[in-house]
Amino acid sequence: xxxxxxxxxSGLLVSxxxxxxxxxxxxxxxxxxxxxxxxxxxxxxxxxxSITRGLQDISVSSGPYATVGDSTSAYGKAGTxxxxxxxxxxxxxxxxxxxxxxxxxxxxxxxxxxxxxxxxELAFVEVSSDGGTYFRFPAVSNTDxxxxxxxxxxxxxxxxxxxxxxxxxNYGTPFDLSDIPDNLLLNKQAVTHVRIIxxxxxxxxQYCTRDMNNHKINDPWPTAFGxxxxxxxxxxxxxxxGTAMSVEEEAHILALAVFPNPVSDxxxxxxxxxxxxxxxxxxxLGEVVMQATNAxxxxxxQLKEGVYTLEITTAGKxxxxxxxxxxxxx
Length: 330
Prior knowledge:
Layout: H1 2-13, E1 35-36, E2 44-52, E3 84-85, E4 91-100, E5 108-112, E6 123-128, E7 135-136, E8 140-141, E9 160-161, E10 171-175, E11 191-198, E12 231-237, H2 247-252, E13 255-259, E14 266-271, E15 278-282, E16 288-293, E17 297-299, E18 306-314, E19 317-325
Antiparallel strand pairs: 1-10, 2-4, 2-12, 3-12, 4-11, 5-10, 5-12, 6-7, 6-11, 8-9, 13-14, 14-17, 15-16, 15-18, 18-19
């Protein structure tokens, strides 16, 4: 229940994302976010994986389950160790030599083995910094859900956001930890686990899975064979602890979390700093309206409604975070 509540809260916080938005296109097209497996951006790959198989056809409860590959198939670089098929609703939980951290741009990418740019089998992606509590990337599917996508049917990638499997084999779908709302239970500078959950593409009410807007996600179904469901190839890490970062990246990760945003009363702040740090709140006129040192929260009830800038400085480094002061609930 705890896990489900957290996921629901995340969906509410990001529900402003338009149901009609069009997203990045397929491999090779202008504006694509696809990442080739040989990109120098990748600094590491998954080193551990556990699998919970799903049924080949969720509507047949007696089985069989997906069979292709095993947990070791998700180890290492994409395109080198085969794939592991999850089946309907199957789960893969991956770990890494060093924790993933949040820095500018995407922080990791998930690889599937689709043979072209339109036959897309999808999965949700979740992360955890303790291996127990997981947070889901806010996923959107604008694919029509009135007619079932057939077993080898096609899907337009421009209708998909924050769903693994958006791109063909050898091209990863990137994920940016900044897309997940801040929460005290998630340390975005020390993500230890990535969880991949197959999307059950069936549009029947009793079996369907839904995106953050409660829209049914329609992908090829049924896939009643051993390689059914999401075929996980690899997870490549872009930002991880122990790798060299630019000054801009170091400044970006100085503040672990500033939340809630918008805020009406207490603005909570989690800061990763080895020494003292200073907090400065500046209004849109450039005036300093609040200052503090080593605080983990600021009381902002007395601020006027509007947009403010929070500056966090330590050891000569500065992080800038905008927040909105909203009206109090009472």
